[in-house]
Amino acid sequence: MFAHKTIKIIAFTAVAASLSFGALYASAQEKYGFGRSVDADEIARYDSDIHTDGTGLPAGSGDVALGREIFEYQCALCHGENLEGVPEMGAQSMHEGRRDIEKLPYASALFDFIRRAMPLTDPGSLSNDESYGLVAFLLVETGVMDDPNLTLDAKSLADIKMPNRGNFIIDPASRFTTEDLEDK
Questions:
Q1: Main-chain dihedrals φ then ψ at residue 129, nearest 5 degrees
Q2: Which of 22, 50, 125, 149 is the most buried if burial means most Cβ atoms within 10 Å?
Q3: If 0-12 CB within 10 Å is exposed, 13-18 middle and 19+ buried, where does residue 175 land?
C-alpha cells in the first residue's frame, strides 16, 4: 500500500514539474524574447543518421573544384585561405592539433559535421552536393587523398580509409563494440 502511494506521489510530482518547466519556458520566451519554435523544414536540416560505414549518406555528389569554390566563399573567412585557421574567428588549423582532418577515423564523420554545423553563420544550409564537394576539397588539401579531380558521392565517401582509423579505441563505458569499428 505504501509503495502504491509513493508511486502516485512520484508520478504526480513528475507531471507537475514537467508542466511547471513548460510554463516557465513559455513565459521566458515571451518575457525575454529568446527561444523560438522550429518548423519541419528546419528539423529536417539536422535530422540525419550517418554511420561510420556510410549508411545514411544522402544522394548527391561533389568534386574538388566545387569544394574549392564553396570553401573560398563560405569557409575561408574563419578557416583561412590555406586551412591555417583564423583564431580570432574561433577556427584552428585543419592541418595540426585537435582539428587535424587526418586524425578523423571516418570520412563520413567529416561529411556529417560539415553538413550539420557549417557554415557557422547558417548551419545546415549547404546542399548535399556542396557538402560532398567540401569534403573532397578538404581531403585533397590536407593530403589524405592525392587526386585533384576527386569526386565524392555516398559510395565513394564510405569507401575512403582514413589514415588514423586504426588508432581509435572503444570507450569501455560506451555502447559500442570493436565490431562497430571494423570494415564490413
A1: -60, -45
A2: 50
A3: exposed
